[in-house]
Amino acid sequence: MSDAVRLDITQHAAVLTLNAPETRNALSSSLLDGLHARLTDIEQQLASGTLDRHVLVLTGSGKAFCAGMDLKAVLADPTLIHTLLRLLAEASLRIRALPMVTIAHLNGPAIGGGCGLAMVCDLVASAPNVRIGFPEVDLGACPAVVAPWLVRKISAGNARRVLLTGGTMTAREGHALGMVSHLLDDGDGDEQTLESIVARLAGAGPTALAATKRLLNDIDGSLDREVAVRGAALSAEVFSGPEAQERIRAKFVK
């Protein structure tokens, strides 16, 4: 099993952990390949009946959920962005299609493509002060892969505001917009715990949850592969252009 992404089974859920803390779980080839490998494991185990959990938690190891695309690798090989964005788009479709309730647990910052990966999940849980957002336009890039998921999550008007203004925000601000569904207890006692959310979902009927999720996917067009593929191609085209390359190089090359 690839160490880049771990699959663990707890009392109430399957847990996928992005496991490259040294890069803040950046979306590299190895991490995305590992994510696809673990998704295959989950799909096969569900089909065979060896996995009986109907909740999936997606989280990160270390201090970040996911820092977004591995931009240092893209600087070294600009053609790599096409592969990374295609893998991200395909992983997003596979996560959305799972007959499980998926929860992104933001253990730390979720930026760019990492925030997009969280938006793919049915629910997003985070402590209030975690930084999230889409700074792609600040880097001369286009968030076309994540845009459809954000539109489905918070409406076209709110997504337009978030994606065009760029930058980041706190999870509490994201909660007000609908990007974060559950604020986790930060010590004030007003928020929920991840364990209570997972346990509640685990107590629901798995057939009913799967059928409801399938219906919601049909209603909002979540599994429209053409939209996902087109978004990956557009993002890659802009990423490969001189504006993005210059801005990314200015950020990482001192």
Structure, described:
The chain has 254 residues and is α/β, with parallel strands linked by helices. The chain contains 11 helices and 9 strands. The protein has helices at residues 29-48, 71-76, 80-97, 113-120, 147-154, 156-165, 171-177, 194-202, 206-220, 225-239, 242-252; strands at residues 5-9, 14-18, 55-60, 101-106, 110-111, 123-126, 131-133, 168-170, 182-183. The strands form 2 sheets. It has a 6-stranded mixed beta sheet, sandwiched between helices. Helix 1 (29-48) packs parallel to helix 3 (80-97) and helix 3 packs antiparallel against helix 10 (225-239). The longest helix has 20 residues, at 29-48. The radius of gyration is 17 Å and the shape is globular.
Main beta-sheet strand count, sense and barrel state: 6 strands, mixed
Mean pLDDT: 95
Shape: globular
Order of helices and strands: EEHEHHEEHEEHHEHEHHHH
Helix segment tally: 11
Strand content: 5-15%
What gap, in angstroms, lies between the N and C termini? 37 Å
Rg, rounded, reads 17 Å
Query: How many distinct beta strands?
Result: 9
| Arrangement of strands in the largest sheet | 1-2-3-4-6-9
Structural class: alpha/beta
